[in-house]
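re: that chain from earlier
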Amino acid sequence: MSLLVLPNEALLIISENLHCYRDIRALRLSNRRFYSLLTQCLTQSSTAKCHETLLRCAATAGDITLATELLDNLATKFPSQKKTKRSIQDIDSAIHSHPLFRKGYPPETILDIQSALLTAVKARFKHFVALLLDRGARADFQFPYKIERGRQIASPTPLYLAVRSADNGIFDVLVENGAQFCHSDCPLVLAVRDRQFHMIKVLVGKGRCMHRSSLFEEVLHLNDRATFDHLIDVGLRVDLFGDGALFFFIAKGDETMVRYLLVKGANPHLAGYVSADRWTFYSDFHCVSSDYHSTVYVAILGGHTRICKMLVEEYRVIPDREDLNLAQKTGNRQIIDLLSGLPYDDVPRKPPIYEKVIAIANKDAWS
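^ sequence. v structure.
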């Protein structure tokens, strides 16, 4: 039986069971009647029956022609400055501030366009990404949180997916269009872990990121000295974010790197958190104050006499009573002699590293 003689209801049932967007498109383009009948229906078809909306299917395949057609239809369907009837209280703030929302696009359509952007980034179709951005998709859009088992789950940002895909071209396009640089899934942290040096340079140069304080330690615990050096070369400031790295190299006994970081501005007068299983010197808000120790303590614990003398004699780090007690416990006569003649009354408190991290984060937030 020819499809032309079937009633519209039967054609719609057939179209809803075509799982491949190319099959749907072929049916729609086969004649004028099908085109008129199916265009409106298929762009709103459920993901259960079509896997994805037609726009996201086009993004998966990189079909610029189909995407352009769909976006043109949307622009005609939602004329500029049309007001939505939905209460503003029912709309997420990210959608309410979206330029397409101000043009009259409903939230569902905006989410579909933004989802297509994520799909195109993951599929590494740079021209498709550029098309969506040109048609109103936002590179800095953050999807509303999902609630799973009582927990808020954040969707990855387009920039995070570009870093994960190791695509410098798409990464640059997103940055040029105002992509969000920091989120719970941080693009900079991922770029550091994956050794994406171009992306690291761009993201460090953009400035504020609440994860900067842990980047040096991140690469050091991965034994990635090349990325560590690159972070310094591209401008990640040791005087602001290098204190944990200082503790790390003191623990390792690397006198050259300890001196280098001190010259660069790392602060030897702070306290770092020493865990039982490994050295951890950046923010840990759950440990008790007794877990924090001075740079001198860490040097004594590692048996690094020369570093200990450097800290006390050259950088005027004032030892605590527990530092002397540790030296006596380890039996290191040189350090015992160094510390024994010093006063231990009213020794200034050594602030934990995380207090400095919080202060920097608060300053960024208010800037």
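Residues 107-123 form the longest helix (17 residues).
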